[in-house]
Amino acid sequence: MTRIEETFKRLKDKGEKALVGFVTAGDPDMEASLAIVSAMCENGVDILELGVPFSDPTADGPVIQRSSARALKKSMHIDGVLEITRRIRQSYRVPVIVFSYYNPIIAYGGDRFYNDGRSAGADGVLVVDLPPEESNELTEKWSKGDFCLIRLIAPTTPEDRMRMIAQNASGFLYMVSMTGVTGSGGLDTTELGDYVERVRQASDMPVCVGFGISTPSDVAAVSAVADGVVIGSAFERTIEENLENPDLAAIIGKQTAAYKEATR
Amino acid sequence: MPEKHHFPQSERPVTEWPDEMGHFGAYGGRYVAETLMPALLELDSAYLEHVKDESFQKELYGMLKDFAGRPTPLYHAERLSKKIGGAAVYLKREDLLHTGAHKINNTLGQALLAKRMGKTKVIAETGAGQHGVATATAAAFFGMSCKIFMGTEDIRRQAPNVNRMELLGAEVIPVESGTGTLKDAMNEAMRYWVSAVRDTFYVIGSVAGPHPYPAMVRDFQKIIGEETRNQTLQEIGRLPDILVACVGGGSNAMGMFYPFADDPVRMTGVEAAGNGIETGRHAATLCAGSLGVLHGSKSYLLQDGYGQIKEAHSISAGLDYPGVGPEHALFKDSGRVEYVSITDSQALEAFEALCRTEGIIPALESSHALAAAMDMAANSGTDQVIVVNLSGRGDKDLGIVAEVSGQ
To answer: Could you tell me the residue range of the domain that residue A258 belongs to?
Structure first.
């Protein structure tokens, strides 16, 4: 059983939903980022998504664009993201997903990324701009069991395509709550229920919902229908507002605990 | 396994791409977030359906003729040729088209497709502003709402085009991120499209972006080469020896080259060398870039060793882009087209030369092609014929030329 499967099983037994926390690795710098991620782990994050900064993040809104730019100024690239993963793995069992645009992975080398990612203790990858149609060139030499390929489902995705995506995915399905970039507002939790049901018709995999979720009450509402909740821009907003604050990691820790409470 | 793996690239003629996945050999494809995939699949099938439809082609041709001003002349620049003292230089006068550049060929095609798909809103990115003006024009023609994304640096250096777009009823949305140029405008247009994908048609201006855009834009622009081919056969009784066109994303060059790809004609694409390739401040993607994925397709890119996209630099806003269309990457690798580069100052010299000798003010983009062609003409015999795609007129560039000359 993979760490991701273990996590969902453990949560199910406890009657909880997964809190999936995203931060851009290296924002505001390597050491502060490690402290932030450790605080998330200490305060109940169930799955960690580490974002690889990219110069042209076309799927992201302004908050994550700016966090990506800050991390790039500190020369954070895939090697640094895997270093953070390695150091987290020394202390925590939490699954780590590397979240990246495709081009940095091409530059690093796809198979090298797979090998180094696993040995650093990463559990999988989500390549935001790599649909199943183009994915084979990256993953054909990867062994499917030990490195999950998390995939996106969007509100625009028709049912037959959902099934095709699910067949090409592992770990869990990342369901984008709305048509928009990360950090958009306007989550409609009534419509969300029907949408999650459609995804469940297409796959037995756990379904985590992300985009536009920022408050504990959003988290509670999404937890009522899905298996997990992804929080990204809301953490990045806190980081941005506290760049000079020595208590930044502790503040993120508190924020994590409040979200986690809402998944119970 | 996709079919392409059974056919080594060299065995499939360069003109017979893309495959149904949008690949041009090892390039192209569809590299976008899932939210956009269904829209691209819908666009692909709508395009395939309508492009074969006779009434679509008839309506488009009518607009190109009566509204845009096709066919454009093929003009023998005799005084320029005499001054160079080598090959005869001909100019394909896309600068005489309505809105002042070849971009209108494509925007009328895409706007007509948008109308047939029932979309009432269009968006576009623009660098030099020519594609923005051409999109705003097509939107006005069809009564569609129009948003144009444009970098703040480009808004500064191409101010007249901003006024034109606004006069035409478009909303110009300034993009401050990055360097405020074409790449950033395209990032922002893609972000907006993700949020409005259900009722909005994204009019991409070059042979770049995810499938089907590179093939679709090529097909709307290939009228340039088709006319040129007929005109040279009629006017000089044979095919030209050399074709020259500038390459930013590559739409005017692809439009000129594609209909000649199976002919014994030498073709040269001209990239922007900015301050010089050795300075690192340039936009010569094919000459000095490497393989990667940007804005939805795989092609050559300007990037660092970590896969971060580098800033491009060129005096010409329309060439100031760190990517290039995937079919150009295929043409480069197959050797069918040679790609060279021209610096800012070489382009400015060619710009002035054409103004003075022929009374034609070319766009700075087209001035790059002209500079390379003048160099080739000087080294060719007088029996040789070179056709330059004069892709746009230079009125929009007077500010930047004055700024540079004043230094």
So the answer is: 3-262
Count of structural domains, chain A: 1
**B222 noted as active-site residue:** no
Q: What is the mean pLDDT of residues A37-56?
A: 98
Contacts of B193 in chain A (CB under 8 A): none
Told to judge if B103 belongs to the known catalytic residues of this protein, a careful annotator would answer yes
Residue B367 annotated as catalytic: no
Q: Express each pLDDT in B2-36 by its tens digit.
A: 333 334 445 688 889 999 999 999 999 999 999 99
ipTM: 0.96
Most A CBs within 10 Å, among B24, B27, B34, to test the A interface: B34
Q: Distance between CA atoms of B260 and A175, rounded to whole angstroms?
A: 47
Residue A4 and residue A95 in contact, taking contact as beta carbons nearer than 8 Å: yes
| Whole-angstrom distance, CA of residue B262 vs CA of residue B259 | 8
β-bridge mates for residue B301, sequence order: B290, B323
> What is the domain-level CATH number for residue A172?
3.20.20.70
Q: Given CB atoms, is B4 within the 8 Å cutoff of chain A?
A: no
Binary contact (A134, B29; C-beta < 8 A): yes
CA distance B139 to B354: 33
CA–CA min distance A79, chain B (Å): 9
Find tokens 């390379």 and name the residue.
B372
User: What φ, ψ does residue B381 adopt, rounded to 5°?
Assistant: -70, 160
Q: Which of A58, A77, A134 sits opposite B30 (nearest CB)?
A: A134
Q: Side-chain half-sphere of B342: how many Cα atoms within 13 Å? A: 32
Question: What pTM value is reported for the model?
Answer: 0.96
Scan for tokens 């004069």, then name that residue: B390
Rounded Cα distance between A232 and A211, Å, is 8
Beta bridge partners of A230: A20
